[in-house]
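User: For documentation purposes, I need each entry recorded in a consistent format: the amino acid sequence on its own, followed directly by the corresponding structure tokens. There are two entries in this batch. Please keep commentary to a minimum and don't merge the entries.

Assistant: Recorded as requested. Entry 1:
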Amino acid sequence: MSRVGTPSPFVYLAATAKGGRTVGLRQARSERALADHLRRDRLVLLKTWRLPEFLASEPKLTLKDQVELNSQLAMLLSRGVPLVEALEVTATVVSAPMQPVIERMRELVSGGTSFADACRKVGVFDEITAAVYQAAERTGDLGGSASQLADTARRQLAIQGKAGTVMLYPLVVLSIAFVAAIVLLTAVVPRIGNALGSMPGVELPWFTEVLVDVGNFMVAQWMPLVIGVGLVVIAAVVGRAKVFAVVGGVARRLPAIGHIILIQESARFFSVMAALTRAGVPLADALGISVQAVRHPALHDQLKKLRTKLVEGGVLHALIDRVSTLPLASRRLLMAAERAGDLDSAFEGLARDMADELDRRTGRLLAILEPVAIVAMFLIIAPLILALMIPLLTISNQIM
């Protein structure tokens, strides 16, 4: 999708309110736009250097920005503040990279562009948000839809935080274990091992000799090893999409983690469906948009087939029963809500229930991962410690 007014990266020199100087890097559509943006931060632009376009990074509308933006819009619009003025205020509460984007939206709206089209033109909003805004403009309830989107983003932010907590603890523990192992292997094991090996009559165990040789090699070849690790990291960053796909595929096959991932994806799907249906988006269109937010392959495929069959004239409650990746209770609830004509409330309730279930399961998984991570840390460090302790304990017998 092409973007209007794509920002360029600038290095700038500016004067502060206290008479000092500051240098920074910021993206803007022009030097004038950069000067206006800095003026809001009480800075006076003195000089700029435009950097090559390939150094520009695509601004991203984070979930936190979505919460702030939609909460502010909902509060102002519900009190009768005009949209252009509401956007002017909203630009002050989002993160710095998003402020020029919101300013560009305000310019587009003040020039006669619809709010949904302005969201599409600036290029940082997903199709889900744009579709909700477009439906809200038709119904005249843009404030209510912004409030619904804020609740959806807030719920997704909580889900994302729970998933991150599950992965963060073992990652931190294992990182500490690997750093400690590298320090022992390069600074402690070779020094003590070489000292013991030089003593007359002392014979080191074979695994101690292996670790000493490995440590000496790492110390002697530290530069190539650092370069190799750096290249691996760069390759992982460049191909991070494939790395994440492989890690996600492995995680989905693990019993406990795989079920948590499915619950997380289901909660995201129901949250998006609740926002779209409450905004008045037709069910088939809402399904077509919501499926894009689902990254679980099995759930994505089944929901996509449901939408296709529904457009072809299928009966919804029969199609829902075929989505076997969803729990039976969820399917029965949706079927009952479809017969009662209250699907939007059902989607909202299921999103809330899935979030609560995710909270419970992540808590249990974290309780299991804590001792497992400690055991893994011990298994990484213990061989290095034993490689030193056994020769030290047996040295007196060998000398005698």
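Entry 2:
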Amino acid sequence: MSIKVKLFLAAAITILAVMVYSFWSEQHQGRLGAIQSEALTKNFQAINSAAELKHAFVIYDDLIVRFILTNDAGLAEEAERYKKIAGDRIAEIRKSTKSGTVIKLLNDLGKESALYFADVERMTRFYQETKFPEGSPIEIVAVWSKRFPQQKQSLTLLSSSGRSRLTRIYSICEKLLDINRVEIERAQSWIEDLLEEGQKAFGWATAIIFIVTGAAALLLAFSILRPLGVLLTGVKRIVSGDLNFEMPITSADEIGTLTQAFNSMTRNLKEKQEQLLRETITDALTGIYNFRYFQEVMRRELERARRYERPLSVLIVDIDHFKQYNDAQGHEMGNVILKMAAQMLRETLRAEDTLARYGGEEFVVLLADTKKEQALAAADRLRTAIETAQFPGGDKQPLGKVTVSVGGAAYPVDAHTTQALIERADRALYKAKNDGRNRAAWT
């Protein structure tokens, strides 16, 4: 039974009192419904747009880094698509808002993103145009040795500028999210004010109606205020950040329909947040963690190792002769090898170990609470798992199969900082390659 029918039945019992109350209730419900269906929905849509905007910048940055490392034109095209998505989201937010603060943030975001994209374009163009000069080997070395310091300095400046601007872009996106969260809280405050007004008016109406029939008044109060109270409780929990909470649908009227729609909207927001988190910390090709997230985990684990005086080891795993495999089998098969290798490494490692893609054909592994001797054994297990696996086209590799070289370093015996541990493991990796590949080495 809808709210209108309930009001009509109450009016039949006491026409004058219930007609007055019905008129007020209609207005009150309309205002409350407008706030809930328009203000909340609009701001949740704005939060989704702002989250997708930040997600587009995150993916764009990751694609550009991979394009620079691999020179894969497909990655550049995909990056341009996410660049367009970012522009579309900015346009959506600008079109849907009247807030001067949001417009100013969007203007700042437009400027920062334009400069950031310009830096990225210069950097990618710089990488594409940087080639070895022609001539004899001696002439090439002589010319390259003169260019390299300037090129390195230019790349460093471009990268630093882009990182700074990207950080500011992320900050502006977070501010846009915060503004919409504040708007949702404001809508909640409006709902509370309307409920307070409704409770006061309902008290007077109940007193009048109770003279004629207290039962009708109690039924009306129970059927309207109880679902509103449940809805308000749910709004408070969701606004506080509890997206796992789902409001019970206590009625089949308009409030029940609104509660159902609110639950659906909350589930969608939760799914988008979880998807954004997954895509932010994982490598798109292999499905394992990316190096940026690995560095965060490693900093935490290293701090824990220092505090409790526990060991910690790092391994860098590199697929041997990967360039030859790509040249012979093609980049698509190269991607297949990377996915298969990542899966085998993950299955060989312990559940508490952290595996991430380091870049290109390299992977990095964090072994918590693991001494040097234990890490050496783990490195050999990883090497053996790859060596004994059946990879398509592996028999055409220089070693007759797909193999990996592994370099390792341990805390505290080899180094005491995150950067130093990775550098020591990297040097050990080069030692393994220089010694003939398909082996594990330690500096």
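Summary note for entry 2:
Residues 383 and 404 are 6 Å apart (CA to CA).
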